[in-house]
Amino acid sequence: MVRVAILDDWQDVARASADWSGLAARAELSFFPDAFGSLEEAAVALADFEILLTMRERTPFPETLIKRLTKLRMIGITGAYNASLDVEACTRHGVTVCNTAGGGGGAPYAAAELALGLLISAARAIPAGDATIRAGGFQHGVPVGVGLAGKTLGIIGLGRLGARLARYALALDMKVIAWSPNLTDAKAEAAGARLVAKAELMASADAISVHMVLSARSRGILGAEDLAQMKRGAILINTSRGPLIDEAALIAAVQAGRIVAALDVYDSEPLPADHPFRASGHTVLTPHLGYGVAETWREFYPLSVENALAFLDGRPVRVLNPP
After folding, report:
1. How does strand 27-31 pair with strand 2-6?
2. Segment 62-104, tens digit of pLDDT
3. CA 112, CA 210: separation in Å to the nearest integer?
4. Closest to 301 measured CA to CA, from 70, 77, 137, 118
5. According to CATH, where is 3.40.50.720 located in the chain?
6. Which CATH number does the domain 2-105+293-312 belong to among 3.40.50.720, 3.40.50.620, 3.40.720.10, 3.20.20.80?
7. What digits encode the pLDDT tens for the residues 195-243?
């Protein structure tokens, strides 16, 4: 029987998010809720699977891994593309790649909503207040928060999600400034923001939210020099990708108590148990929940099942690398 692996079932929601019975009647299904520790571990665990149904960019699939999966015939990805999957290598090795089209249609702004939540949580020390009450205390020891009305939010990357966060900030009576390498005055104005130079944004914003696609060009787009320009006590939010920010510089900044980092994404995921972010009182942390809401799962998983069944029928759909 064909073996199908459902990878990175991040919150154990895959089974309840789709009807798997049709696929289960034709294939042996294995669900993997935990991330692999290395490519070597992934290669061993996935060696006998013909179909892999993956989740966005959680497990990378470079050619070094793909060529070791000699039984692999099809990879299903969620969303329109997956930057951590080498599609050309899949083509060279005879592996069909199918997507779920645009993806996230049920909740297109979920990541921006989480960024807003991280902003408010960091500004009002909500995690500390919650932890104090659960430990039997109440107000003592909870840091004093700051109001957001009248403050300045800097947005790095004013695309679909960045522009949506700008709207949220305006509703809070915040001022919004923005920067990215190709941002224009007209696009910034359309989003209710003011285009400024990167250095001005870093130095003048009370909170900064990053909304960039990770690429060779954007990797490390915020480095030590940029973080050093931030106001003391400013909040830095990242719901995009960890490597957009120089991690060593960010660790140093939060350990020094200069800024608060509100993070949903990290260089290494899951975040290592001994990572300095976990021990810092100047961080607010979530486990890469950005797009992961019920509406997204109810779109991604049924389409993934449909892709696998179509492939087994010999009529693959939503193919990224047609012959």
Report:
1. parallel
2. 999 999 999 999 999 998 888 889 999 999 999 999 999 865 5
3. 10
4. 77
5. 2-105+293-312, 110-285
6. 3.40.50.720
7. 999 999 999 999 999 999 999 999 999 999 999 999 999 999 999 999 9
Q: What is the pLDDT of residues 138-174, one digit of tens each?
A: 999 999 999 999 999 999 999 999 999 999 999 999 9
Structure tokens at 71: 């039984």
Threshold 0.85, pTM exceeds: yes
Name 144's Cβ contacts closer than 8 Å, sequence gap at least 6: 125
Question: Annotated catalytic sites, by residue?
Answer: 241, 269, 288
Structure tokens at 76: 């299903």
Q: Which fold has domain 110-285?
A: Rossmann fold (3.40.50)
Two tokens, residue 240: 């995009």
CB 207 within 8 A of CB 151: yes
Q: Which residue has the tokens 């990541």?
A: 111
Convert the chain into a string of H (helix), E (strand) and C (coil).
CEEEEECCCCCCCHHHHCCCHHHHCCEEEEECCCCCCCHHHHHHHCCCCCEEECCCCCCCECHHHHCCCCCCCEEECCCCCCCCECHHHHHHCCCEEECCCCCCCCCCCHHHHHHHHHHHHHHCCHHHHHHHHHCCCCCCCCCCCCCCCCCEEEEECCCHHHHHHHHHHHHCCCEEEEECCCCCHHHHHHCCCEECCHHHHHHHCCEEEECCCCCCCCCCCECHHHHHCCCCCCEEEECCCHHHECHHHHHHHHHCCCCEEEECCCCCCCCCCCCHHHHCCCEEECCCCCCCCHHHHHHHHHHHHHHHHHHHCCCCCCECCCC
Phi/psi for 84 (5° steps) reads -95, 5
